[in-house]
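Provenance and format

Records in this collection were gathered into a single text stream. Each protein contributes a sequence line and a token line. The two records reproduced below are adjacent in the stream.
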Amino acid sequence: MDWISPRRLNRLGMLNMNRRNVDYIARYNERSSYPLVDNKLKTKLAVAEYGVTTPRLLQVVRQQHEISHFREMAEGLGGFAIKPAKGSGGKGITVITGRDDDYYIKASGTRIAAPDLERHLTNILAGLYSLAGSPDVAIVENLVESAPSLAKFSYQGVPDIRIVVFQGYPVMAMLRLATKDSDGKANLHQGAVGVGLDIGTGRSLNAVQFNRPITLHPDTGLALENIDIEAWEDMLEMAARCYEATGLGYMGVDLVVDANEGPLLLELNARPGLAIQMANGRGLLPRLRNIESLKRPHFTPRERANYVMDAFGAL
């Protein structure tokens, strides 16, 4: 597995935070679109109109009195996920994977009682996890069961795929794998593993943890150099469709591969981080400039997916 030093990445077109903020986020993202992507419930409703599937919605809790219906709704479920609609960075998300008599089992294996989950819902409504602490809405979704081909590489948490989409073109992608350090969450800042993916094939390139190169997952011990994402072209098309759904010119699209449902959209991010470049061992700037220079943009999501596979594959 080849590795390119940060200094060389600069020479190869590493996008830095200031340039990202000024030249891409501020220039291509309309402020009016931010509330849509900063709210998971609004995102689900918007992308559904464009054929983008998301985890099945089980319940929406908007008012305190609606919490009383939660226990009844969850009674027959083997697993589910509670999320604050306006949460960020995975804050406030509670994943339940099973039951043990009167207790629910979290993804970490910890048991939690129903009253504790109801208090968690109250905290979500109060805005404990929302941006700027504003009052929020809780959504309860069907549990995502990761495809076994990917789940084996991750420690406890569901692996996801981040795709940076620019003007409707998926320009760079990485697989994020949970670790003990990240507490089972696919968050690179907390210690998850980032695996760069060849945009042309969906196969793994480089892997990093805490921005340092690795070849084996620190907890599962599995090699990270031969990972192959199934239905890759369909996933790129799904990411491209999010451009029409939101109008955002520069965004991160987070997908998972469910064992039963196939690719699903988890959430969108109008301010995607830059660690994806380290995972790929190459900078974003050449690809962004390539898209900016197109004289005839491709009008359909499938055409845009095919273009990037040809233009940026194995680069």
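Adjacent record:
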Amino acid sequence: MTVVVAVMALVVVIMLLGVPVGFSFGLGGFIILAITGLDPRFAIPAAFRNLESYTLLALPLFIMAGGLMRDADISRRLIAFTMSFLGRIKGGLGMVCVVSCTIFGAISGSASAAIAAIGSVMIPEMVEQGYSRGYSTGLVAASSMLALLIPPSIPMIVFAMTAQISILAAFLSTLIPGILMMTAYCIINLIMSRRMKSLKVAPKIAFSEAVGEIGRSTRHAGFALFMPVLVLGGIYGGVFTPTEAAGMSAVYAVFVGFFIYRKMTLAGMTNNIKNSMVTSGVVMILLFFILMVSRIMVTYQVPQQLTQFIFSFTTNKWLVLLMLNVILLLMGMLVDDVSGNILSAAILLPIAKSVGIDPIHFAAISVTNLSLGNITPPCAPMLYLAGLIGGNLPLNEYVKPAAYFMIFGALPVILAVTYVPEFALVLVNIFLK
């Protein structure tokens, strides 16, 4: 146990020095094997067996679908659709950004895809309409969390696979939290927009003109809006599995991009497939090494000893939940959401079960916390990605606006999900039980 903890501390230091997460865990795993004399054949084949999963195939397919949807012009049409409803309100453009990230999350399941697709369009548009570039970038970064909460969610697929729970139930557990967070962000944006004197607001138009504008945008975005219906309706209607839904979303994006919107090119599609293969390869390497380390930790009973350590302070269920939230948030600051959810399912889920927490409820707690960690320094990969998309901004220009949404929007939702299990379980109980 002492050796494992010491090496894991070394892994954290290595990551902070800039070594990729997957290789950091791989190095840590092999150091533990060398020091303890544990047979590598015990840990390495187990990690490979976990990767040989039909369910896991959804990951590269959703990654590919996210890039294809961007090139198919789906993201721009989704933004135009939400603009027709909200664009003539002061602060409406910020709400368009939030809602667009939510809808795009219901298609791609990826925060980075949402930032790239929505941010590249919305940040310049918001700056043109009088928002500061820092505020626009911070809002996009915070809104990227919604892409991880609204199903389908790539981190949730990973958590469910590792924890061996229903992917459909895990998807449903974060739907209400995602909608609550979207609503909170919209309200915060409206409040903050009141102080912005430079905002341009589109002139009011007659009701008949507004209806016509909504009708036109709906018609132009019809095929884009059908995509979440296809993916989620197909999954929950029992037509196809999450893996098949991921494949269908990629095929649909290609069809719409080539034959309906005619914005996609063969060269662009080929480039997207190559990029998704590289990203998927990185994710698989990451998964392999973390699963290997998780196997070693289970062997040395790290989860059980961590449980005993926490219980030495308190056995109160609500205080244990608070401690788990703090651990998850700190974990999210150091590692990406995929690796964080694997570690959470392998190490922290047993602790949650020991105090009577439903695994589906804990899945929602884990994903919401680690999503917030994605935009919380020091690592904050999604925060920095938004800064790059926003024009290589210095961190100090957009971290403060993002912090408003994190503190007053994300944190209250996380606490609500943690201490009111019904937010995570009500839809599961209605549709799957």
